[in-house]
Amino acid sequence: MKIICYTLTISTMLSLGLSHDWSFCELSKQMENQCASYCYHVVKPLLHMSEVCRQKDAQVSELQSQMEELRIKMAILETSLAEKEKQCELRIEHSKEIFAIEMRRKPKAQENTEEIVKDVPFPLSCVDIDRSSGIHMIMLPDIETFPVKCDSGIAGLGWTVIQSRLDGSINFYRSWNEYRDGFGDLKSEFFMGLEKLHRITSSERHELFIFMRDWNSQLRSARYDDFKVGGEQTGYELISIGNHTGFSDDMLRGNLHMKFSTFDRDNDKCGDSNCAVDLHGGWWYNCCSDSNLNGGYQETLKSRRIFWNYSSDELITVHMLIRPKRVNLS
Ligand SMILES: *[C@@H]1O[C@H](CO)[C@@H](O)[C@H](O)[C@H]1NC(C)=O
Ligand SMILES: *[C@@H]1O[C@H](CO)[C@@H](O)[C@H](O)[C@H]1NC(C)=O
């Protein structure tokens, strides 16, 4: 732009033969008067043109800095897109795996439909219900039928939701008997109950998936491939969790082999103090815990909040899901 303007200015001056007359103007008052009209008619437009050039230069450099800003924004978006793609790939891979398992199971189920209906009036797990989402009745050996919330949207098909935190509508600071039997509303927040958890996870090997979202909308997940809870005589001990994977650190390892504790049943390893009271929840407290998913919703006291890593942001959404880990399903 600059070059074009200068070239234009110089070539205009040359073509009018003015370069000599212009310097002469400076020396002689008389000549100056004579050339005043030249100066006015010829030089002024040139000065104006150079002012226009300066403005254009400023606009160009403004546009260049805006472009630079856009390039940076694009780079950021590209990075987050790549991350999203990676997560999608993982999820697609996982769905394919589950789909393959479902397809292998289907023909068998259809052949024996009548028999199954006769023998098992209710499915044993969400994974036995086609396109399972929403609330369904399931049945376990030695236990009455009961409603469960199934989910196929968070981590693939056929998961049973065992705990949900969404809005703080349900109080999770509950007694031993309430944690044993379960509480809350399947349509919003709830805890399934330790006895059912024990019966389900001891009927066959299960995996655990934990979905979490914090105040900054950061998503985290944790997956354990062998989740098992003992019976009431063991204090509903966290017998096993298996191996950890997912987009988070392993914050349940320290709770392995711990009994469950509530404010009225202190089974933790902390001597005099009661972790269930201090952390305001029910959990497999050691002394006390890296994770506190049954803590108080939006508690002012940080130690009483819902957290997965005490040092990270408070969680506002949690879903704990389980599913049979049928590795040899063909
Ligand atoms: C956990 O991983 C280790 C090594 O990757 C493996 O040997 C072990 O069997 C796994 N445990 C379970 C419960 O799958
Ligand atoms: C917990 O989170 C903090 C902060 O994000 C991090 O520095 C720390 O390594 C995490 N703890 C563990 C055990 O992963």
Automatic annotation (TrEMBL):
<dbReference type="InterPro" id="IPR002181">
    <property type="entry name" value="Fibrinogen_a/b/g_C_dom"/>
</dbReference>
<feature type="domain" description="Fibrinogen C-terminal">
    <location>
        <begin position="117"/>
        <end position="326"/>
    </location>
</feature>
<dbReference type="GO" id="GO:0005615">
    <property type="term" value="C:extracellular space"/>
</dbReference>
<feature type="signal peptide">
    <location>
        <begin position="1"/>
        <end position="19"/>
    </location>
</feature>
<keyword id="KW-0175">Coiled coil</keyword>
<keyword id="KW-0732">Signal</keyword>
<feature type="coiled-coil region">
    <location>
        <begin position="53"/>
        <end position="87"/>
    </location>
</feature>
<dbReference type="InterPro" id="IPR014716">
    <property type="entry name" value="Fibrinogen_a/b/g_C_1"/>
</dbReference>
<keyword id="KW-1015">Disulfide bond</keyword>
<dbReference type="Pfam" id="PF00147">
    <property type="entry name" value="Fibrinogen_C"/>
</dbReference>
<protein>
    <submittedName>
        <fullName>Ficolin-1-like</fullName>
    </submittedName>
</protein>
<dbReference type="InterPro" id="IPR050373">
    <property type="entry name" value="Fibrinogen_C-term_domain"/>
</dbReference>
<dbReference type="InterPro" id="IPR036056">
    <property type="entry name" value="Fibrinogen-like_C"/>
</dbReference>
<dbReference type="InterPro" id="IPR020837">
    <property type="entry name" value="Fibrinogen_CS"/>
</dbReference>
